[in-house]
Amino acid sequence: LSDAFKSEFPQFQVLDETTEYKQNVITRATMSGMVTIIARSFARGSDFSCTDDVTIARGGPHIIQVFLSNSHAEGTQAAGRTARQGEPGSLELVLYQDDLLNLGFEAEKLVEREADLYEYLVEQRDKNYSNSVAGLIEGEKNTRSDHACTLKLHKELTSYSPDKDSKIQQLLLDLNMKYVGSSSSASSYHIFFCLDDSGSMSRNWSALVSAVEAFNQRRIEMCVSANCVAEDLVTIVNYSSSAKVMCAGVDIKANPHTLTKFRGGGTDFGIGFCTVM
């Protein structure tokens, strides 16, 4: 807090997660002449009551809220800090315009709706909240689908036999194509492959490279069916006890899978992903 603030309000206190003896601060918050700066997390769930006769005679506690509540429930709780059991109190909302713009509000609308600005803010906030909840629900559905596919892949890998190669390859394609399908808004992608070329992969190396080739070919076919040219770039990173970039930013149509080769060695899963990142 600035020295100017402290000189203007000699009686002040702060209530946040680091405050000791929080209940003492809450009790003093409604005393006449006391200014309490309260962290947002205490806007709900903390019981403030006023027994100071001077404060009550002057209209009760006054709350200056400097954030827009995320929901109606939070707004009601924040307003409830002004009084308990019907006691008098008042609430003032002070918001920074740039914060509202960052939340998606339009500057023109903020000016046009000045007369009923709070109602507009609440309406848009609730709409944004509903949209975010709908997005979470849709994301949960997609995650369930991905999880089910991942469990299938895990089952096939843990009971592996050569006759399952085509099924495993299809599961991998299903998982990955979901994120590079033609329905996406992006027209081209930079696709990264992290290939385990440790010693234990020597027998399955050719199958792994074939899977990369099949993935790239399927991506090209999808572009053709969508009447567009495949302009994706491909980078392949091999990892064992060390990581090596085998090719970087190669045209997907130039058979980038032919540019990687088996090296052998120990296994360090993290080093491959760190190299890509």
From TrEMBL:
Location of the SecA family profile domain: 1-126
Cited InterPro entries: P-loop_NTPase, SecA_motor_DEAD, vWFA_dom_sf
Taxonomy, superkingdom: Eukaryota
SUPFAM superfamilies: P-loop containing nucleoside triphosphate hydrolases, vWA-like
Record protein name field: SecA family profile domain-containing protein
